[in-house]
Amino acid sequence: MAPPLSDMTLLDLWLSRSIPMCLLLQSLVLMALCFPSASMCPKGCICQRDSHLHGFNVTCSQSRLKEIPPSLPVDTVLLRLDHNQIGSLNLSYNAVETLGEGAFTGIEATLQVLDLSHNRITSVHKDAFARLKARIIVNDNPWHCDCALQQAIGGMAHNHEAAARVLCRSSELHDQEGQPFLAVDIDLCNLAKRTTDYAMLVTMFGWFAMVISYVVYYVRQNQEDARRHLEYLKSLPSKPKKADETDDISTVV
């Protein structure tokens, strides 16, 4: 007796000639693209393909991990490791570009070493390192020195060595480019505020100047129209006096 259709695999269906070979191959390719194999997804993790980021979102939350799981999909674009027991996190020589506010949520208490050196990090959220007690290594990244980075560095008081290794690839202050970030003795957050205030002042002055220019133009235009109208009136021929009006005048005299 043949098994129910719902219990039959694709191979069973092909062997029973219920589906053609070409359809079988298409189905296998589609499954390979959409679902990672068991060997690709680490034990205790969930791997889902993200069509927008063109890679896999790997969630390993609450898996009692003590290290980064091996055999991650090669095209992993998002890795969640919150609420584990990871003591060391080595992400050096990768392509990390930015760190969000909750990048290390759930592993702050257990993490002892965080190596982010030799990546592509340009910016971080101001609270990215706020609750970390781990030793942080962040050298050899193309940092953009701005207000957010200054606040993040301020939260790394126990990581003075790491902060000293942050070099500004670019900066809000052009003369600080290529210099150690700790050499910046200006409050970049207030600098950004002052820059914004200055831009608003310039904008307001521009609008005010435009309004004044329009008023001056309007007044001059009206004066010119009034002058032309007056000249037009002067150019009109005067009315000749009627004969009876002349006689009346003579009689009165």
TrEMBL record:
Compartments (UniProt record): Membrane
One Pfam short name: LRR_8
Record's signal peptide: 1-39
Domain LRRNT: 40-78
GO CC, any one term: plasma membrane
Xref: InterPro entries: Leu-rich_rpt, LRR_dom_sf, LRR_TM_domain-containing, LRRNT
Residue intervals passing through the bilayer: 198-219
Classification via SUPFAM superfamilies: L domain-like
Entry annotated with the keyword Isomerase: no
Keywords (A to Z) from UniProt: Leucine-rich repeat, Membrane, Repeat, Signal, Transmembrane, Transmembrane helix
Membrane topology: Single-pass membrane protein
Domain of life: Eukaryota
Family: Belongs to the LRRC3 family.
Protein name: Leucine-rich repeat-containing protein 3
Organism: Maylandia zebra (zebra mbuna)
